[in-house]
Amino acid sequence: MAFVDRILHCNSFTRGHVVPLLAGARRVGWLRHDNAKALQQHADVFHVGHDSVLLLAEGDTDAVSRAVDGVVDALVAERRVPKVRNETFDVAPRWGERPIFRLDRGAVPFFGVRAYGVHLNGYRYDGCNYSLWIGQRAKNKQVAPGKLDNVVAGGIGNGYGAAATLAKEAEEEAAIDGQLIGRAVACGALTYCMETRNGVRDDVMFVYDLEMPPDFTPCNRDGEIAGFELMPLAEVLERIRTTTDFKFNVNLVILDFAVRHGILRPDDPEYLDVANGLHRPLD
Amino acid sequence: MAFVDRILHCNSFTRGHVVPLLAGARRVGWLRHDNAKALQQHADVFHVGHDSVLLLAEGDTDAVSRAVDGVVDALVAERRVPKVRNETFDVAPRWGERPIFRLDRGAVPFFGVRAYGVHLNGYRYDGCNYSLWIGQRAKNKQVAPGKLDNVVAGGIGNGYGAAATLAKEAEEEAAIDGQLIGRAVACGALTYCMETRNGVRDDVMFVYDLEMPPDFTPCNRDGEIAGFELMPLAEVLERIRTTTDFKFNVNLVILDFAVRHGILRPDDPEYLDVANGLHRPLD
Prior knowledge:
Two copies of one chain form a homodimer.
Chain A: H1 3-9, E1 18-23, E2 26-32, H2 33-38, E3 46-48, E4 53-55, H3 61-77, E5 88-91, E6 101-104, H4 108-111, E7 114-125, E8 130-137, E9 148-150, E10 152-155, H5 162-174, H6 178-181, E11 185-195, E12 200-211, E13 225-232, H7 233-242, H8 248-260, H9 271-277
Parallel strand pairs in A: 1-4, 7-12
Antiparallel strand pairs in A: 1-2, 3-4, 5-6, 7-8, 7-10, 8-9, 8-13, 11-12
Helix pairs in contact in A: 1-8, 7-8
């Protein structure tokens, strides 16, 4: 088992399994063939063609969102969408563009719309070795229960930017206050595209590093993390290489940390596939 | 003009303009159609088919290199390759694999083989702002004469690894000794693929950061750099955005520096296209 296997696991997406979800001429999602078919009975909101599904609902963001919400309720009743999360993500063709509609987080994989999140590497460095604060996800989490996680991570809900999401999640998930999170450094964006039970996970992770003060211990406030542990990076990397203890996408965030901080190095034959593989091209 | 234009400029490669150069079943280069045709008269070394060119020369690395060298000499005589550089690059299907042959650097674009180099961001940080040591390339350089450059950069010649190349070039180009370059941190790999006058430039740049001591001024020893200047990063980024003063691929290295150090940030609408665009997928 090698580091690149963790990357391949997150990039299981196969173009032949899906059709594009279009808003006008722009793609905003990927629909698995069975998911596209399930939209045929909502012909007022979606036109299901052979090669694509077209969003028909018109109007401003509120109006389109209401129309799609009605479809999502039906999909939940049919158990095609597990449940409504009561947290909505903006849906736009590209990052930074005006959203066409808002979509409940629970329905994001069904429609295969691109989702954006923030991940924080909370690290310590003694001048020689790095350690990372690692959280263990609560056993009742819907996604990856009990798996190991970054000290802070969360999806960017509608109306929030990346920095605001980071500050909010840092406070809720790890009791990192505004002053401390203000020292976090934006370090890049990682991308992957994965087939999941419910559809497609087309994810962008905005990555931040924060050097944690020696006297600070993260403390969870929202019940999503069972506990935190400070782990030597070398041990973390060995667990990433040899186990699936870490949440699927957190492996990528930590591999990127190791690439950016010279822990993995170019003369390692696997280096280039890791460093390059963390960045799936955006279409 | 925007940052992404600098990235697009380095990614002018169009698949329809080339055919693959194959060694057995593996691709090792891209040949422009006119370049492929020029190999027809070397039928003992290359078989030129309709959709690909196959390397016929067999034997160990030395034997294949000798056969290809003969062809390169003819291509120089025909002015299809500008000149022999007397510096050879390893040619292999993937980084870390055994080379199939060595190719003179001057012929690398003609055959469109992937080339690997190192680039060093020599920076200073005052706790608030970054500055970069920037070199100006000598006016007699074959590629990008007079353009602005990283403090150290160089191609990885055959038999050298990335770290060894960095140390060698640091000494020759900027009088950075072994002790100082030993503090450089490997930070990732950038990739692009560009059509050039002579063929295809399929490049991997291994990127390093080095915090430069306040009392150190780089000094060129090999005549390739006309002079160095310490520039505020904000000014460097503005010149990258609004001018073509920097060598085409150096723009990418400095944009990556700005992404990794939180100078460019996710809430900028252009951020994702920059952060992602620096990493062209390897095939």
